[in-house]
Fold these 4 entries.
Entry 1:
Amino acid sequence: MAITDDIVATYRGPRRVAARLLAGERHEARPLAYLLAALGLFLVAQAPGLARAAHLEPASPFAQRVMAAALALCALLPVFYALAALGHLAARALGGTGDWFGGRIALFWALLAVAPLVLLQGLVAAFVGPGGAYLATGIVVFAVFLWFWGAGLAASEFGAPA
């Protein structure tokens, strides 16, 4: 199945998609590719808001802002690996029987699957700017991310859905 089809299917049944992803090949390139693709899309999502900020405050040009955002996202790579480990340990404390690989797939896939909403949030940042709409969009993005991550951890640690 194409990755875009999997992303759409995640919005209908995140645990089923996560179980299917976990049943695939088990090599570290896959979760890393999910994470890098998600971070690349997050950078693209930030570009319209960064362009707006550069237009309103020309002291920092757009290219400088994009480079800073890209470096910040690169610096977060180890943080996401640590977060995946913490998610696995939390599920293990609740009786989960999964492994570290499953914890990484759950988190990194959740990040990639929520990327379309992050792109929407970037458009809100560009066209509306900071305010209530941007905050509401951020809350929705975070809630959907937690839903996807929780479903992925459930599939990884407690088995496929019934």
Note: The chain has a mean pLDDT of 91.
Entry 2:
Amino acid sequence: MNERIRAAKRGFEQSFASGTFYNRQTQDEQHLQQILALLPFRSGMHILDLGTGTGYLAFPIAEMHPEITVTGLDIVETALDVNREKAAQEQLSNLRFVTYDGTRFPFADGTFDLVISRYALHHFPDIRGSIAEISRVLTAEGCFFLSDPAPNEDDPERFVDAFMQMKPDGHIRFYTCAEWDMLCGERHMQRIGGFESRIRFPRKYSAAYDALLRQYPDAVAESYEIQRSGGEILITEQVSNLLYQKQK
């Protein structure tokens, strides 16, 4: 496991342990329902939830669709142990959680009909390698859904990546829709649907954020609606929610 993946693992284990604050950062019922409405569910399919974390997508899908098998994959062992206990308590026999090293997925070629990933891919240090793995484990005409924040058009110098890297949780890079289309296209996956959303993301404030902001034009901070509120600093990010299908 390389150092960037270790950093992500450490950061997320700490975030999951923080409970309420992490939930405020990531949970959004409206967004969840939009995702569930877009995904092409069908009876008997096998779904991989990549970067599953606390199982934010995996649990509702498994509960709503007992005829579908859901596998959550992540590097965060402690969180997956909690997920397994929860799945057992809720008697979700169609849901399992698997840990891995952050690089090669521990599954055979063509195992899954659908791979999904929410708010995780910007932590992957070898994004092309990860997209190749997604394509490898998909069936011949399987689908891939991603939900991930994107840099906005007023941020050519990628302030947003520097902002997100202030927290030591392994953030690598946000990608534009065009970049996702290129990356997925390299693996013969074509976009077939999607939508845009927003996330208002709180971080614990430190003076280091002020120092970072002084390095960029005021218009950049304004474009992300940067605001300090008490002991927090908030940023608003556009989110790309994209559905791809593997082509023959």
Note: DSSP finds ten helices and eight strands in the chain.
Entry 3:
Amino acid sequence: MQTIPICDDDLARLAAREHVLRFLAVVASDPTSARFIGILRADPQLALAGARYIAEDPGSRPAELAPGEDPPERLDLAPIVAALRAPRQRLVDDHTRVFGLVVSKECPPYEVQYCPQTFAVFRSQQMADIAGFYRAFGVETGRDVPERVDHIASELEFLAWLVAKERHALGREGEEWRERAAICRDAQRDFLAEHLAWWVPTFARALADHAGLLDPPAPLYTALAHALASLVPAERALLDVEPPRELASPRPEAESGVAEGCTSCTSTGDP
């Protein structure tokens, strides 16, 4: 761990990442939840501006793209904002058509469904590791439509929380705050490498294919898929995470009992 010299660009980049990650976490969540309803009423300008900042930021360009990733320059939340203008019942219906009433076989939004190891013990350990990250940073289970800890919305929300904590620490004076910022940075890097970068590109590709082939298509989820495929390589570049060498494969048939988690990662205190 090393302390981080700061500048205005560092804080602006953190703010952009936080707004984009939180926005996509909500979009990926259940449209019947209160937090999803909130995004329909909120001004999306901060998220849109954050996506433009990341897309134009030279620091978000990885040395190479991993299978399933799209160039960060394509990151654009405008198609999502446009799709959110559909009647709410259409959004609810599209969510059901895309993900089903049980775990989707085409594009499951859960990390452990992509694990090559299908043993229940391994998958339970993976879930426990995710939950351990959450506990270490004061995150509690969300009570608004609770979701598993390995759901895409939960993981994006947690990464946004770590970014918020780093930004909060960098805005304070003193060596202790610099050390806290470095801890948050290291946690982002580890969580991205271990629990997002390796499976989200596969999920994004499967989601885009499935949502686009429905009759009628589900534009919100096609747009979400494209945004995730561009965001992951940007996050990898900014956090110096190596690209996965191969595309994961969903294995929903191997699901076994797993613990519950959160969609709206909440905390007991300020970042």
Note: The two ends are 19 Å apart (CA to CA).
Entry 4:
Amino acid sequence: MKIPKIQLHWQILLGLLLGLLYGLFLTNYVYLIEWMGEVFLRALRMIIIPLILTSIITGITQIGSGKSLGKLGLKTLVYYVSTSMVAILTGLFLVNMIQPGKGADLGFTQKVEGLDIESGSFGRTLIEIIPTNIFEAFSDGKMLSVIFFALIFGFFITQTNDKHKTLLNDFFQAAFEVIMKITLLIIRFTPFGVFGIIAGNIARILNEQGSGMSALLELGSSLGLYMITVFLGLVIHAFFTLPVIQRFIGKVNPYKHFQAVSTPLITAFSTSSALATLPLTLEAVEHRDGVSNKISSFTLPLGATINMDGTALYECVAAMFIAQAYGLELGFAQQVIIVITALIASIGAAAVPMAGLFMIAIILSAIGLPLEGIGLIVAVDRILDMFRTATNVWSDTTGAVVIARSEGEQLKKGLRV
């Protein structure tokens, strides 16, 4: 009899539940399995630098190649950056208002080092983003310096001659594909990592607080508020911000457009992959919206790669939630760093399930938060991934119709307002 394969998100949930039970009832033996969480986090740290370096460089070379240097490319890039920034600021506003992690005594007494962004002036922080030694920045895990180097390296690849440009593009694209295969392998071991992390955290809570049930209730309450915060931000962005852009900038009927692209949106929700949905998105935007192939074939593949409004919002909220759970008050400079890093990390995020979770590690590293905080949010990541991917694709289609209208295209008769 063939044993049915359990989907990854159910495996993660099972790892979470087993970790809770193990931490509660086998507290004194948690050292036997805690190594799983440590190995998982070490693997995350191992992959962060090469992942962010190759993903950003390949993303920048895509933006800056060929016809994308023209007016159409500029419009597309401005749209993608603007909507992602609005999404991040929406999430930042909500997480500061709701504060899902604040006030919950979750037993995180670990000393957090590296939160020194505000020890000097904000201007000094920006200056120090430029590394004096890029290899030292790689070694020390200075994420902002790595991101800065990747941005300028990717840009200047586009300025080289065709022979060298092709060589470097092929090299970094191949390297990115290899890194993604390693990343997907690490993702497969996420349930074991969650098992070890959760069991260790629960054991520490019991040792420090003595009351497991009250601590678990606080954790569940905070996690529920966190999910509500992310979901509310996505709802605001998807059902208010983007329709306003469609209606008043693109002169498109939001309801009619939603009907036209409902199939790719449902597919994006179920698969959590913008790239897997791309053929359906292209078909819907071209044949049901009436966008020309010239516009759709450029904006949509690029959008599926770098336009991640929902992911950017989620990354910002998740980083702030983890900081609140550790009892940390992030000031203006640190929140600006989160916004900037979330924007760049969302561009670098691969359009595959759970890729945004790995980008959270980049943001946590950038502001000096422990990666162990990922254990708080990984259990609910899959359900949020479905909503944020649908939001990503909804934004891609919005960009296609808005840019098409800006280029003078008429679209289908029922879409115009």
Note: DSSP finds 18 helices and no strands in the chain.
